[in-house]
Specification:
This protein has about 220 residues and is mainly beta. The chain has helices spanning about 110-115, 205-210, and strands at about 1-5, 20-25, 35-40, 50, 60, 65-70, 90-100, 125-130, 135-145, 160, 175-180, 185-190, 195, 220-224. It has two helices and 14 strands. The chain has a seven-stranded mixed sheet, with no helix packed on it. A five-stranded antiparallel sheet has the order 3-6-13-8-9, with no helix packed on it. Strands 4-5 form a two-stranded antiparallel sheet.
Length: about 220
């Protein structure tokens, strides 16, 4: 397990987020030096447009955690379609990233309501996102599972959500979830070299989906 935490600053500074790599593999057997470098969220990121599943539209929602850049998990011979400089995702060994957040920054719905509609997750800053409307490359916070190289979710879906703590039976690329007992989110990923954070989810989803029970301990949802 590799863990890193930034110290909380009471006013106008760090939230005090902790990030952990709680599980992983080293398929190529090559020794790696993994680093986690932190920064606080920028002012614009407290009300930042990012693409959030299941909606494909943009919403003005910010971050509720500090931002961590993870490097060093690169897979030997792995894909790196946009180069290997920091900020451009590269294929890595499979691992589980877990992060916490500041629940006081949530607006509108509480954690249980958001978890019930699969909106407690991790995002990554995609600096190579193609905006098809303008045919331009832009930086965009996106759900972490959208950065994966391929998927291991049944039926080829891009992701599957679990409302529970991670355990080894869930070690499949594309799985992600929320642990209500510890107030942490996790995701099974196979890329690094980018910045990760926890987002303030969209509030419109509750209106779109309607009333959803929150009493199911283990909830699964597949994303195509």
């Amino acid at each position: 397990m590799l863990a890193s935490k930034v110290n909380k600053v009471a006013t106008g500074g760090a939230v005090g987020t902790e990030a952990k790599i709680i599980y992983g593999s080293n398929a190529d057997g090559v020794a790696k030096t993994v680093t986690m470098n932190w920064r606080t969220m920028a002012t614009i990121e407290t009300n930042q447009a990012y693409q959030h599943y299941p909606q494909s539209e943009y919403a003005n929602n910010g971050l509720i955690s500090d931002v961590v850049l993870i490097t060093g998990l690169d897979k030997v011979g792995g894909q790196h379609p946009y180069g290997t400089s920091a900020g451009h995702r590269v294929e890595s060994d499979k691992y589980v990233l877990q992060m916490d957040y500041d629940a006081n920054l949530l607006v509108g719905m509480n954690e249980a309501q958001r978890a019930a509609i699969a909106e407690m997750d991790i995002v990554f800053l995609d600096q190579d996102y193609l905006d098809t409307a303008t045919n331009t490359i832009k930086s965009l916070w996106r759900p972490a599972f959208k950065g994966n190289f391929g998927t291991e979710v049944a039926g080829g879906a891009q992701s599957q959500y679990f409302e529970q703590a991670f355990d080894a039976s869930l070690f499949y690329v594309g799985y992600y979830g929320y642990d209500a007992a510890t107030h942490k989110v996790w995701a099974v990923l196979n890329f690094d070299n980018v910045q990760f954070a926890v987002p303030e989810p969209m509030t419109v989803s509750l209106l779109v989906i309607g009333g959803v029970g929150v009493m199911i301990r283990r909830r699964r949802r597949s994303r195509a």
